[in-house]
Write a structure and sequence with these properties.
The protein is α/β, with parallel strands linked by helices. It contains 14 helices and 15 strands. The strands form four sheets. Strands 2-8-7-6-5-3-4 form a seven-stranded mixed β-sheet, with helices on both faces. Strands 9-10-15-14 form a four-stranded antiparallel β-sheet.
């Protein structure tokens, strides 16, 4: 029997594949060090866990409204007002099973067959597959280190066609950690408004910003821009709640209603207990978040300083998230154990085989000359991984 051609055309997530391979090797007793995970290595703060326990004990274990409980929606509205100076009604908020689910809802709501979505690259691996799953066409537009890995209005203009429906803006970015400035976002917004295309603003790493950089939501620019912007966010990265699976969107009422209707048929409500935990996260203290940001900043500084001192590789210091993209193009043609490095995939494979270090090749991010390191791991692991990198490179011929 024939299976779905659409589903057969979807590639597995390389980041999850690398993480799964790392965990299996670790389970097999190998001394492997992993840098593939896209999740904080910190535990969920205790007051959030207690809120979940309290929800269980008080019987909050039944169905909720499909688009989320009202107290959580109100908390999201309060957060958007306090942090982003944006006014939304609870009816414009859709709570979903993680930001990934939120993005699927977004593309399902705005795309018709053949609609194009501009995806600035390097990009998070799931964007293109999500667009394809919703019958859209991903248009990948690459920007290099000389552009700080950020798309420009000129490049957007060059790739807009009569089929362009939306652009994705991810700031801070996975995988590059780059953060768009207010001025850069205003220039992008002008192009989107001029051509009447939606802006899908993925802000899941909003709080994970370092140095003097500030997060600015593109929806803040004007009411006109806010109306064509769908904000995607969640509690996963900020509060070390990746496994709780709570994300949310903020959009104009028409899109919000469409996403709510679809979700009611696809998944029903997000986990009721996790919703109450997310409510505690958004309304509770931020002490643990502040500690996490401080620790991530130290790890980033150490990783980038070490990489810059190692011959043959380099990196652009990120402003946010918890990833570093390492350029390995100078290693092409070099060999180890009789095998030649001709791509980032080769590098990642040989590095894992030889030194038991798992990094993610940039191929899946449309960044063919890079591998991604996550510093969402201990400083001890980072030191060990970089020591092994130096050892690996010393053995190349």
């Amino acid at each position: 029997m024939n299976l779905s051609k659409k589903f057969m055309g979807i590639s597995p997530s390389p980041t999850l594949s690398i993480d799964a391979k790392f965990k299996q090797m670790k389970a097999d007793g190998l001394n492997v060090v992993g840098f593939g995970a896209g999740e904080p290595d910190f535990d969920t703060p205790s007051h959030i866990k207690q809120a979940a326990i309290d929800a269980i004990m008080s019987g909050m274990t039944k169905y909720t409204p499909a688009s989320g409980i009202l107290p959580l929606k109100k908390a999201v509205c309060d957060k958007l007002k306090k942090d982003n100076n944006l006014d939304y009604e609870p009816s414009q908020i859709v709570i979903s099973n993680g930001a990934k689910h939120s993005l699927m809802n977004v593309f399902g709501a705005i795309l018709n067959p053949g609609d194009e979505v501009i995806i600035p690259a390097p990009y998070w691996v799931s964007y293109s597959e999500m667009v394809k799953l919703n019958d859209g066409v991903p248009v990948i537009v690459y920007s290099g280190e000389d552009e700080d890995f950020k798309i420009t209005p000129k490049k957007i203009e060059e790739n807009i066609t009569d089929k362009t429906k939306a652009i994705i803006i991810n700031s801070p970015s996975n995988p590059t950690g780059m953060v768009y400035t207010e001025e850069e976002l205003k220039n992008i917004a002008d192009v989107c408004l001029k051509h009447g295309i939606y802006i899908v603003s993925d802000e899941i790493y909003e709080y994970l910003i370092y140095d003097d950089k500030k997060h600015f939501s593109i929806a803040q620019i004007s009411d006109e821009i806010k109306d064509i912007t769908i904000i995607v966010n969640g509690v996963s990265k900020t509060y070390a709640m990746t496994g709780w699976r709570i994300g949310y969107t903020a959009s104009n009422p028409t899109i919000a209603k469409m996403m709510s209707n679809v979700q009611s048929h696809a998944t029903s409500n997000p986990n009721s207990i996790a919703q109450y935990a997310a409510l505690a996260a958004l309304t509770g203290p931020t002490d643990e978040l502040d500690k996490m940001i401080s620790e991530f900043s130290k790890r980033r500084d150490y990783m980038c300083e070490r990489i810059e001192k190692i011959d043959g590789v380099s990196s652009l210091k990120p402003n946010g998230a918890f990833y570093v993209m390492m350029n390995i193009s100078k290693l092409y043609g070099k060999q180890i154990n009789g095998k030649t490095i001709n791509s980032a995939d080769d590098f990642a494979e040989f590095f894992l085989e030889s030194k038991l270090v798992a990094v993610v090749p940039g191929t899946g991010f449309s960044a063919k000359d890079y591998v991604r390191w996550s510093y969402a791991t201990s400083l001890e692991n980072i030191k060990e991984g970089l020591d092994r990198l130096e050892s690996f490179l010393s053995e190349l011929k």
